[in-house]
Amino acid sequence: MERVVYMSFFNSMNISATGLGAQRTRMDIHAQNLANVDTTRTADGGPYRRRAVIFEERTAGSSFAGALSGAIGQTVRGGGRGDRLSTSLSSSFHGSINRTFAGSGLPFRGIAGGDMGGAGVRVHSIQEDDSPGPRVFDPGHPDADVYGYVERPNVNTIAEMVNMISATRSYEANMTAMNMAQTMMQRTLELSGR
Known about the structure:
Layout: H1 9-35, E1 51-59, H2 64-75, H3 81-104, E2 118-128, E3 135-137, E4 149-151, H4 157-192
């Protein structure tokens, strides 16, 4: 049996919400890097190491809605009337979508088997940058080695500021997408009420 996942109005808002959370985490890490630009001693010993956020695609099954949809789709089994109806609806839906977009030349294929593609973004990990920091001659510093050099954090202030601006712009773009989805829902409700 072929199972179809229909995107609801709320899916675009959920996807944008994952982007908001991810960019907020990214902003927090860049702020932490900037705050520790002069930290030459950490609990682990040595200077502070710059941290970076690694994102990954969030799959459709990783949300509660995706898990619920999968569970509902698996309960329709046994070749009964509901199974035939679901297969019939699935075939007609994919046929009409594929015909519509094939005629326009757009590379679109119906979504089947529960594979909706990405469902947003999530933070995979926060990793330390192992590149060495600059060594500065400062013999009076408490963390100076026997030659009078102090190893500084490997944080580049200009790069961190550029990354913070990028995170801010991505956050704003996700917020705009969420507001547009909300506007579309309101407009649909207004049209259906007439």
